[in-house]
Amino acid sequence: MPFFLGVCLAFPSFAEKQPAQKPSPAVQDFLKRVERYADLRNSLEKKLQEPGDKAEPEEIRAHQLALAELIRGARSEAKEGDVLCPEAVKELKQVLKSEFQGAGGKTAKATVKESAPAPFECKVNQAYPANAPVSTVPPDVLLKLPQLPEDIEYRFVGSNLILRDVRANIVVDCAREITSLS
Amino acid sequence: MLKPRMGSLLLSLLLSGILAPEWSTSALATQSTGGPKVDVTLPQKSGSVRFMVVGDTGTGGSAQRKLAETMVAAYGKFPFEFVLMVGDNLYGSERPKDYQEKFEEPYKPLLDAGVKFYAALGNHDEPQQRHYERFNMKGERYYSFKIKDVKFFALDSTYMSPEQLKWIEEELKGSNEDWKICFFHHPIYSSGGRHGSDVELRKVLEPLFVQYGVDAVFAGHEHFYERLKPQKQIYYFTSGAGGKLRKGDLTRGSPLTAAGFDQGQSFMLIEITGDEMHFQTLTTSGATVDKGTAVRREKLRSQQNLATEAAPPSKGPADSTSRSDKTKSSNGSTAGSE
């Protein structure tokens, strides 16, 4: 689903305020890529027993590690920019620039900066570090960014934006220097 | 050996109930001999909803464990049914042994007694905690549940997506319970020096809370206790010193603070009965640093409508703090020391 349409359907008050817009070809391309990743993750997950809602810690941990290994195996050739492709990153950069500008943008930027974990080297397929908290992504920013499939989320790590798969706890992709938090 | 006169005095005090023996209240109280002495002042009315609120617990360290002993002693005096965990349930790694050391072991007596824990996710928590049976999250990052006439809404404040906003709006709109209580990690009002109010989150959540009649909000993230002056008639509490502590971080003289404590770990006991929510905040030593009673918003409104009908028109809108501070409290010294 085009991200803007998705946003409008999910959040009617936003839809009322904003004219409908077709996402650019670059964003559509990005959304196709991230959907492909989600499809792969979901199909690999079917090979594993789902933890459900009454799991023990051993099951949760085993499921997460096994899923991460399956994804790494299936994406062994994956490299930075495969999902967050350069053309889309340019547009996301503009979205963030606009969201972090002005008086309103100052608090959004401060929220991200204040919550950001100590920078760590982001690599595709690596585990999100256990001792690193996650940055807050302000709700207004999430409203403007293309909507991601379930359990894939945007997070800031320093000035980088990563896509994190929370089921496998791995970095799907990373866009470097996408925003300046200084 | 007691002198005969002193012995008869003790006996008469025991019989009159002034010196109630601690072992009479519950089996758990007998296990806490030598532990902290806790004096619970909540009304303990029949049929009330009783729970505990605590956040930022999951260190597995001695401070968390000592506070847990006080919780167990408090349970002996005030058997609460469940606990709201306001996030940062497990710091650092989340291996099976971390679940044990940072959650199951410290709270074992409560878990064994059948107390249910309902968790919200913090910025140190992996969302996969939603699958853990003892966090009762139903496999969801945000969820709701109902206890008698109180509806609770757990939110994931680290990622307030459009879908989640739509969900909370629909949930609140569809809720007909007397009380609506939200709990999540990041406080939208706070006097913390390190973090402070999450203004971005407030922009999207507060209008929904006001529109759909949320009565009280519990948060963590700030490693201290703070009771905020009611904002737009909503009560806000931060209870984020369940394991971690940021000593001295509560801004002195903050216009937001109604009461606070940042000198030690703490947790809250809550009892809801009818239109009143009674609260008491305890420290590791069992000292009470805040207590009081909050009145349900609908009740407040009807009282205000009655007052408006009886009184001449006012000059204009008062500020949100002074208009709605109907909390009756005591022991609420701001940022006091234990």
Sheet of most strands of chain B: 7 strands, mixed
Number of strands of chain A: 3
Are there runs of chain A of 5+ residues with pLDDT below 50, and where?
A: 1-19
The averaged pLDDT of chain B comes out at 86
How many separate helices of chain B? 9
Provide the gyration radius of chain B in Å: 20 Å
Helix-strand sequence of chain B: HHEHEHHEEEHEHEEEEEEEHHE
Structural class of chain A: mainly alpha
Which parts of chain B are unreliable, with pLDDT below 50 for 5 consecutive residues or more? Answer: 1-33, 313-325, 331-338
What distance lies between the first and last C-alpha atoms of chain B, to the nearest angstrom?
A: 35 Å
The shape of chain A is: globular
Helix fraction of chain B, binned, reads 25-40%
Largest sheet of chain A: 3 strands, antiparallel
Strand order of the largest sheet of chain B: 3-2-1-11-12-13-14
Protein chain pair with the most extensive contact, residues per chain: A-B, 41 and 39 residues
Number of strands of chain B: 14
Using only C-alpha atoms, the radius of gyration of chain A works out to 17 Å
**Overall number of domains of chain A:** 1
Output the structural class of chain B: alpha/beta
Order of helices and strands of chain A: HHHHHHHEEE
The domain count of chain B comes to 1
